[in-house]
Amino acid sequence: MQILTQLPLLDDILDARREMLGAQYQPYKNHVYRMVNFCVAHYPCTGDDLEKIIIAACFHDLGIWPNDVVDYLSPSIELARAYLEANQKHAWVDEISEMIDQHHKFRAVKNSVYPLVEVFRRGDWTDVSFGMRAFGLDKGFYKQVCAHFPNLGFHKNLMRLSKEEFKRHPFKPLPMMKW
Fold it and tell me: In the list 33, 110, 126, 138, which could disulfide-bond 149, CB 3.0-4.6 Å?
């Protein structure tokens, strides 16, 4: 399996948001590249499906940064929606919104009319779990992708945000997680 190392659409979307991401620009960009690679490893695709995965991956956690929050699914969906509408991709809004909304679901997404929702969930879980939830992904490929796109503190930043959220809302510390 070949690692996708250059995705101009991904680069363009995130480069336009470099200021918003600040010091987390490269760590987040690497996370997005890892995720896209894991999604494509689970569900080989090209064309519109690959473009949808790239767009959803770019925006899936982006709602964290404007306000440094953990309850970021709705803001991320809104950022994706604005991008899709500005780029005449109105027909993709529902699918990409669902991909973002369900990406932290613990259990498989069933009954979705969009197969990419479950593919996307698996791609994110593969990365966020450091490969412990890899859904059968080849460990060698996982390691190669991680070596090419190092973590650079991405997970450490998520842990920092989660600790702060726990202090503010001890009875709902991880509002983005779903069963």
Answer: 33
